[in-house]
Amino acid sequence: MNAEQQKFYDYVTEKVMDNKREELKEVLAEFFRKMAEDQLSKGDVESTAEILTPLLRPKYREEVRNVMLDFADDFRKQVGNK
Q1: What domain count does the chain have?
Q2: Cα–Cα distance between 71 and 46 in angstroms, integer?
Q3: Cα distances (angstroms) measured from residue 51 to each of 28, 30, 31, 79
Q4: What pTM does this model have?
Q5: How many other C-beta atoms can be found within 10 angstroms of the C-beta atom of residue 47?
């Protein structure tokens, strides 16, 4: 995990429901794997945001979803939509 991934991981981990931490780790591990292998698409970012949302404490759901979708938009601009 690189520094940016660790920063995002720490950010999301602070906002996840306690009983969903293991599931969060699995979802982010797959997300980061695709990113490292240059196989991540904008659709992957959007679907990961959809998967993560119910794992979060309700008061953080919109915030984290917006961060993920902003990331997807930036990602698309940098590499195009795969």
Answers
A1: 1
A2: 9
A3: 10, 12, 11, 23
A4: 0.78
A5: 15
Q: DSSP of 7-72, one letter per residue?
A: HHHHHHHTTB-GGGHHHHHHHHHHHHHHHHTT---HHHHHHHHHHHGGGB-GGGHHHHHHHHHHHH
Question: pLDDT of 31-71, one tens digit each?
Answer: 889 888 888 887 888 899 899 999 999 999 999 988 887 77
Bridge partner residues of 56 (DSSP): 16
CA angle 25, 30, 57 (to 5 degrees): 40
Domain that holds residue 59: 3-79
